[in-house]
Write a structure and sequence with these properties.
This protein has a domain at about 30-58. About 45% of the residues lie in helices and about 0% in strands. It has helices spanning about 30-45, 50-55.
Length: about 60
């Protein structure tokens, strides 16, 4: 928890379902993993046509 900025308490919503604020997963950087996965999947889903078009130019 960020004690200097209490308005950032919303950032702690994810650890609740997987062990709470004091559980095993409480100190992990799950947000980084989720952001990487979302970026990868978003690229695959939304850029598939562009990638296919670029590959067929040659």
């Amino acid at each position: 928890m960020n004690s200097s900025a209490s308005w950032l308490n919303w950032q702690e919503y994810l650890p609740g379902p997987i062990g709470g604020k004091d559980g095993t997963w409480a100190a992990t950087n799950l947000g980084v993993i989720i952001a990487l996965a979302a970026g990868f999947l978003g690229t695959l889903l939304f850029q598939k046509g562009d990638i296919r078009r670029q590959e067929s130019i040659d």
